[in-house]
Amino acid sequence: MSSTNLCRCPWLDTSKDDYVAYHDDEWGIPVYDDQTLFEFITLESAQAGLSWYTILKKRDGYRRAFLNFDVKKVAKMNEHDVERLMLDEGIVRNRLKIAATINNAKRFIDIQQEFGSFSNYQWQFVGGKPLVNELDKLSDYPAITEASTAFAKDLKKRGFKFLGPTTVYAHMQACGMVNDHSNDCFRKAEIIEKY
What we know:
Layout: H1 17-25, H2 34-47, H3 52-57, H4 59-65, H5 71-75, H6 79-85, H7 95-115, H8 118-123, E1 131-132, H9 146-157, H10 165-174, E2 178-179, H11 186-194
Parallel strand pairs: 1-2
């Protein structure tokens, strides 16, 4: 079967090749690597109030702006970096979100020190393995869940910014804490089988 004939999730705009590649190659695959998790959580926090596709198009800009998501380097960024990034057309130029990324890097490191890795901390909210949801149509997709609410509340308590329950749920979907591929999507079973 050609990739154009494959059944995919109902939220996906299949006219955008880069969006299809993201869905097929990344979205919903369990991630345990802290650098990738920092990238995903940064991109999700940047997305708040915008479309995910807007952020996906700027992903390379974010990689450049935030030092390939090296959390230690980002944590050392300062007000001069914020001013510089406010002029960077490769990212969303929102002062609060840029400052939040630097703040969140510091908080991320705090969690790494406490739990051994951010991954250890994050995955506890789903009992260490992906939750598999039964989704047939777009209206079946939740915006928040008990787990995303608890995760977001704990992040807020630890000083994270721009990571409410809806944004955190999107992060959980992206990094495979939940398998929210629709039941008829070809990736659902593949991910369950492989991970």
